[in-house]
Design goal:
The chain has 151 residues and is of the alpha+beta class. The protein has helices at 26-36, 40-43, 45-50, 60-74; strands at residues 16-23, 86-92, 101-113, 120-130, 136-147. It is elongated and about 60 Å long.
Length: 151
C-alpha cells in the first residue's frame, strides 16, 4: 500500500479501490450485538436457529462498522478527507455469519468539484462487501468530500 497522500484529483469515475478484507468471528458478532444491537438472532444460538436466519448472524450495523474501519485504514488515513454529508443507500443483501470473511471495495461513480468551496470536491461512491462464496452481502452508496491538491 502506498503512503502517498490522496487528493480529490487522484480519483476518477470507474476507479475501483481494494479495501482489503475482514473476518467475522462469533465472539465479535456477539460482542457488537451486546453493545449496540441486542436482538436475539445476534446473541442467542437457540433463538437464532429458530429465526428466519436459521442461525447466528452479524448485525447489519456491525457489517457497516467493519466496512468503515476498512475505509479509514485503507483510504481515509492517507487522503485529504473532509468527511461526508451522508449515506444515500445501505443494502444488507445476505446475512453475515460467524467465520465469514468479507472482501471490500470502493467504486467511484462520479467526481464533482465544489462550486462554492474550490478547495474540495465530492466523490459519489459505491462500497461493496462480498463474502468468501462471492455473494454480495453489503452495498452502500455514499458521498465523500476530499481536499483539492494545493497549487
Amino acid at each position: 500500500m502506498t503512503t502517498t497522500t490522496l487528493y480529490f484529483e487522484d480519483f476518477h469515475a470507474g476507479q475501483v479501490i481494494d479495501l482489503g478484507s475482514c473476518r467475522f468471528t462469533e465472539e465479535d458478532i456477539m460482542d457488537f450485538a451486546r453493545r449496540f444491537d441486542p436482538q436475539p438472532f445476534h446473541l442467542d444460538h437457540e433463538a437464532a436457529a429458530a429465526s428466519h436466519f436459521g442461525g447466528l448472524v452479524a448485525s447489519g450495523w456491525h457489517t457497516c462498522s467493519a466496512m468503515m474501519r476498512q475505509i479509514v485504514d485503507r483510504l481515509l488515513l492517507r487522503s485529504v478527507s473532509h468527511g461526508s454529508p451522508g449515506v444515500d443507500e445501505i443494502r444488507w443483501l445476505k446475512p453475515v455469519r460467524p467465520g465469514d470473511t468479507l472482501s471490500m471495495t470502493m467504486r467511484i461513480l462520479e467526481t464533482i468539484p465544489s462550486r462554492s468551496k474550490p478547495d474540495r470536491g465530492v466523490l459519489k461512491s459505491e462500497y461493496q462487501a462480498v463474502n468468501q462464496h462471492g455473494e454480495l452481502v453489503l452495498s452502500m452508496k455514499t458521498l465523500g468530500m476530499f481536499g483539492r491538491r494545493p497549487d
